Structure formats: structure tokens, C-alpha cells
Amino acid sequence: MKKTIILSTLVALLCSCNPETWDLNITGMFSGSSAGIDQRIDDSFAYNDEHGFPLINALAEEYSAYVCTDTHVDFTRKYWETFILDYRHDISCPIAIHLGDLINAQRHWDFMRRPLDSIPVNSAKKDTLLAVAGNHDLYFNQWSEYLRLWKRSTYYAIVRTPLGKRDLYIFLDTGEGILGQRQTEWLKQTLNWADTQAFRHIVVCTHTHLFKRDTSQGHTSNMPLEETYALIHLLKQHNVELFLSGHDHSREVTNLGSLTAIIIDALNDAEPNPAYLIATMNDEPIKYRFVNL
Amino acid sequence: MKKFTTILLLFAALLPAMAQVQYGTTQYAVRLNVGYLHNTTYGSYAGFDIGAFMPINQHFEMQADLRFTTANTHAIGVQLRPKFAVPVGEMFIENRLLTGIYARDGFNDLTEALAIGYRMEYVSVQLGMSTRLIIPSPYNWHESVNIIVEPFNLCYRIEAFVRPQTSPWNISLCISNMTDYQIERLWQPIFMAGGWYSIDEHWQVNLSALCKPTGMFHLNAKYYAAEVRAGFAYNF
Q1: What is the tally of structural domains in chain A?
Q2: Do A232 and A94 belong to one domain?
Q3: What residue ranges of chain A have pLDDT lower than 70?
Q4: How confident is the model at residue B127 (pLDDT cuts 50, 70, 90)?
Q5: Which of A34, A208, A211 sits opposite B148 (nearest CB)?
Q6: How many Cβ atoms sit within 10 Å of the Cβ of residue B235?
Q7: What per-residue confidence (pLDDT) applies to A12?
Q8: d(CA B148, CA A254)
Q9: Which candidate in A207, A212, A236 is best for mutational testing of the B interface (most B CBs within 10 A)?
Q10: Residue A227's domain spans which residues?
Q11: Which residues of chain A have a CB within 8 Å of the CB of B221?
Q12: Which of A44, A46, A130, B129 is disulfide-compatible with A154, CB 3.0–4.6 A?
């Protein structure tokens, strides 16, 4: 009994420890000290209200969407720079997406962001990089830093082709392993609206993956079972084609009928098998391929 | 008598909740519970639980549980528990088969857990592995939909009691990723509290509560679900 109490206390202390300050915060096990999903939704929606949603023009009916995740930039950023170079040099790419865990821990935001200013864009085109927050982007009150540089984590973007066909990209904030009530409501409303808009493709982009099909990252967590099932049901009801996520660092493709859920490999420099994904968007069902670095 | 029963039920309602299986129980029992449940996905809903506990002999016991909810998610669970006495307490192997019917979302899941446990008067602990099959429902054999397999999951349960488990009343606190109706992933601990009061040798009232936060392993925990259930057990 004594041992149980000691062990439980130790686990509780370790679970609530902030390595930055060595603060111990037991209540953090139940209510995190970083901005919660409701706060983040408020901030994202405030930005959406003020600035609207990105509308991106593709140069052709067929274009490429570059997607990477889990760059975990800290003191090096080799693969992150490669990704930026690749999508900026590809004339068929109007949209690049980062699925979260942009940085590994505090104080690396500006270092992570710098290549976006220094690597030139192919002069024949414009492109846009969009991101969502991952758990590493939130740890220990980093939401304000994320917000400073990336502005929002719950929103959508539309890519429009020269002939006026449109693809919808929905970005969801699952950085703490939960969608939450308000974001779920927003997602329902957005998908209901999308049903009336005749989008060519609908893609959902977020950080946290749906299932635990392997042991690739032992403790990596995802959403509660109830929320996972409800989310998939909702996405299938509204003909979402692709659910793109990261977090697990290990590639995985799950076929759920009309919906394909993909976990993309991590792109951090310490990763043994770094890769990103290129989705080909045209009038056919979405095709994708992984690019191993 | 009616007034007495009402008072006892009220008293039970003040207790935190009930243990899964009481160590030392030798009577067959049937349990009925009604619960208020809430999570941030479904909102508020109600649950109705029926359970049977069968201590077949001193080396083997079984438990069966059924849950129906107004959210149109249901669960059926069977537990087979070989057990053997050790100098202090009892070792057991829990073999648990659980079907979750998430009819509202078109999914069924089938979870098999095998755990080694030790229980004594004040403490019960379990550690094991579980495997889950997630099956879209209705399953379309002509569509190339995967049955999703989550092959390896650690399951655990630590429960402590304030009095010996054979006491006529008790209060327990528990942390686990397993309830009678769900086995969550290892990073999704569920915090439970429970209590019971035996009115006589046959009737027992109980109350239980649980809280399921999410995001603990994202280091940014947040409330996800809670439930309070109350009911009674009849011991044969």
C-alpha cells in the first residue's frame, strides 16, 4: 500500500512537471496550464472573423499540394529547408501544409520561421504555406508564439483552379488530443455549407492521428474513442476524401471506404525515415505519393 | 420501510462510487444501475446498466455487463476470471471481451484484454494487454474498407479501498484505462470513485462516478467525459 502511494505520487509529479521551470503542477493532469482548446478556438475565430479565409489560385486544373508534419525544429532544420525548397520550386504547387509540431520546444519559433523569408519562391507562381498547431507547439504556454507567427489553427482554405473548380481544405486544431464541442460544431457547420458549394475535393488536415495501429511511438496519444468514431462518421457523411495527420511519426494509410486517413512520416532531422507527401489534385480521385528524403 | 429505503438511497448517493468486483464476494449477484453521462462529443445522455456476477467456484468467477445509452452507443462485456489464493490476498487472471456498439457513428469495436491481477482487502491492481478490432457497421463486404486493428495496448487498474472489501459499506478510488464498458488506450486514464452500502444480506446500494480527462500525454489535459451512476445489487 505504501509503495503504491509512493509510486502513484511520483507518477503524478512526473506527469505534471514543466522541465523549463521545474514547476510542479498536479492540477495540470486534469487542466493544462497552456491555452486550452476553447481559448485557441476563440483566438482562431477572432482572426477568421477579421481576415476571412485564404483563397488560393492554382495555375492549372491539376496542381500539387505538398504536406509535411512533425518537423520538430530545434537547433537544426535540414529537412524543413528541403521541404520549403521543393514546394517553392515546383510550379504546380500553390499550397503547402504543415500538420503541426513545427518546433520541438520553446524558443525555436523564429529559427523555424526564418527559411520562409530567405528561400525564394519560384517567380512564375505564388504559393501559400498553411499550418495547424501540434502538441509540441502548445507545451508550456507557447500558443501565443504560435499565434504570433501562424495566426490561427482552426480555419479553412479554398484552392481555386483557372476554370473555377474549387477544393476545400479544412484545418482542425487537435493539439491537445481533443476537438472539443465548439470546434466540432464549427466543423459540422462548415461541412454542411460545403455540401451546398459543390467542391471538387474536401481534405481535412490536423495534427493528431485517429488510431493506434502500431507501437511506432509508444506513448503518443490521440483522441478519445468516442470522439474518433464521431469524427470519422461526420467526415464520411460529408464526402471528405482525405484525412491528413501526423503526430505518430510513422507512415500509415487507413482505408475507411470513401475516406482515406493518412499519417505522414515526421520531417525532423533526427528521424530515420523522413518523408513528406504530395497530393495530386485534379478531376480524378485524389492521388498521393510520399517523397522520402 | 419505504422511508428507510429512501434514506438509504440518499445516503448512498452521497458516497463516491462502487468497486468493480469485491474481493471475497461469494454470492451470485445481479446489478442494475442508472447513470447520467456526459462527454464533449455527445453532450448529456443517460445510461442503463445491467450486470451479473457469478462466483462459480473458489477458482473461477464470471461477470457479464450490458449497457444501453440514450446516445445510441451500447456495450456488452464478459469477464472470465480464474483466481487462486496466495498467502495474502488473491491472484487472478482477467480475460475480458468487450463489444462496443457505437450505432450513432456506424462503428463496432471488439476488445479483448488479458490482465494479471492481485487483490487483497484494501487494494486491487491489474496489468495486462488488450487488442481491439474496429469494424465499420454495417460492414460492406464489397467495399475495400479495412477492419482496423489496434494490436497492442497496455491496460492497467489500481484501486484502493478505505475499508476491507468484505465490509458492509466501503468507498474506493481507482485509476485505470478500463471500465466495465470500455477499454481506452493506455494514455487515456480514467479516474473513478465508488462506494456501496449493504442494506441486508441480499440488497446493496451503490453509487459510482468517473472522470475521463484527455490530453494528459499531450501535456495539456482537459476534461472530456464524466458519469455518475447509481443503482442496487441483489445478492442471491
Answers
A1: 2
A2: yes
A3: 1-4, 6-7, 9-33, 217-219
A4: very high
A5: A211
A6: 17
A7: 63
A8: 8
A9: A212
A10: 34-292
A11: 28-32, 176
A12: A44
A252-285 confidence digits (pLDDT tens): 998 888 899 999 999 998 888 999 999 999 999 9
Please answer yes or no on whether A178 and B224 come within 8 Å at the CB atom: yes
Which set of grid coordinates corresponds to residue B229?
A: 451512476
By CA distance, what is A25's nearest residue in B?
A: B219
Tell me the pLDDT of chain A averaged across its residues. Answer: 87
A140 in B contact zone (CB under 8 Å): yes
The three cell numbers locating residue A99: 500538420
User: For residue A58, which of A201, A189, A222 has the smallest C-alpha distance?
Assistant: A201
Distance of CA B122 to the CA centre of its chain: 18
**A27 and A145, same domain (yes or no):** no
Shared domain check, A125 and A75: yes
* Whether residue A38 sits in one domain with residue A28: no
Query: What is the Cβ-side half-sphere exposure of residue B167, based on CA atoms within 13 angstroms?
Result: 17
**SS3 of residue A182 by DSSP:** helix
Q: Which of B30-39, B145-154, B226-235 shows the lowest per-residue confidence on average (mean pLDDT)? A: B145-154
The reply to whether A107 and A238 lie within a common domain is: yes
- The ipTM assigned to this model is 0.86
What's the grid cell of residue B214?
Answer: 484527455
A40: which 3 cell numbers? 485557441
Do A244 and A164 share a domain, yes or no?
Answer: yes
Is residue A54 helix, strand or coil?
A: coil
pLDDT tens for residues B10-54? Answer: 444 444 334 455 666 678 899 999 999 999 999 999 999 999 999
Say how far apart CA B17 and CA B208 lie, in whole Å: 3
Structural domains in chain B, sorted by start: 2-235 (2.40.160.40)
Which grid cell sits at B11?
A: 445516503
What average pLDDT does the structure give for chain B? 86
Q: Is the pLDDT of residue B9 over 60?
A: no
Place of cell 507567427: A149
**Contact between B105 and A233 using a beta-carbon 8 Å cutoff:** yes
**Which 3 state secondary structure label does DSSP give A6?**
helix
Q: Which of B175, B219, B223, B227 best probes binding to A when mutated, by most A CB atoms within 10 angstroms?
A: B219
Q: Please state the pTM of the whole predicted model.
A: 0.87
Angle between helices A143-150 and A37-51 (to 10 degrees): 20
Write the residue in A175, A208, A257 that is nearest to B145 by C-beta.
A257
Spell B150-184 as b/e; 16+ CB within 10 A means b: beebebebbbbbeeebebebbbbebbbbbbbbbbb
In this predicted structure, which of A263-267, B184-188, B195-199 has the lowest mean pLDDT? B184-188
CATH code: domain of residue A76: 3.60.21.10
Decide if B145 and A212 are in contact by the 8 Å CB cutoff: no
